[in-house]
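**User:** My hope is that you can spare some time for a protein that puzzles me. I have put the entry right below:
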Amino acid sequence: MSSRPDTPALPAFLRIHQYAGLKPGPRLLVTAAVHGNEVCGVAAIQRVMAELDSGALQLRGGTLSFIPIVNPLAHQLGRREGDRNLNRNLRPPVVPQDFEDRIAGPLCRWLADHEVLLDLHSFQGQGKPFAMLGPRNNRGELEPFAHEQAEGLLAACVGTERIVEGWLSTYALGLQRRAERAGDGSRRATLQQDPHYGVGTTEYMRSRGGYGITLECGQHADPEAPEFAYKAILRVLVLLGMVDAEVVAPRPASAPELLQLYEVVDREHEGDRFERAWASFDPVIKGQRIGTRHDGTPVLAPADGRIVFPAVNAQPGSEWFYLARASTRQLG
């Protein structure tokens, strides 16, 4: 693959750091910059590694691995993606087609070699940190899973006020509708119609027998986001018994709000527009106009709930926004 005019050379490796405790314990992988412009986790990982290296933080046991910059091309360019979204359609490629395919090979091997994943992200709009966890225990075809309790405890420990479930099952509904529309023949359109497209780091981790959460640590430029990510890493290490409990304050005592995604709506045309500047978790009521299609058709909320991940600049054919409602799930 040839180099691009906006970068001197393609990154040739992933930098991976590993600390092997002298006593048995869990195998934890902490990742950041899966999207290259989401850098709070990079700073948090570097801070934890500095404390481990200096002896200020002692690993009691287990194996702790860090990949501070999962997508070095996107990070180098200062944007979300290199050639495409690495956190979609994640699997070892048969024949690599782009830079993210080349990352996927070693990344999937490292995911499969660990039991627990903490994947650190940030988001574009304003808002507070939140965690995303996977399905409840099931033997279904979409995302069979057997670690509901452990993953729920993981999500509850990091200190967010809000936890969201239901990503892959909701995305599958969107895929069904997307498959009925003709794409433009581009690789992006082909990937977006692939049934595997909703699979990212945590989904792949679960497919290999592990569990993990996506932690959205705040807005991209929020100066508090690196501190939140840092404390989250320590809280996970405490939860897993890998460091002493005294290294970080416990999470707030109040229970987090738990929401379930249930619908995804694609942007179909560049003329599709939102009714107003939505932020994630803004409330909506049944029948409220969320946006308008390019031909004037209103896009209405089907029920009371919250709007999640509104993407005002979404590409036509990709996710425009999600809808969520209160969940009845118990986190253990």
Remarks:
- The CA atoms of residues 139 and 145 lie 7 Å apart.
- The helical segments are 40-54, 72-77, 99-112, 148-157, 167-179, 187-192, 201-207, 225-239.
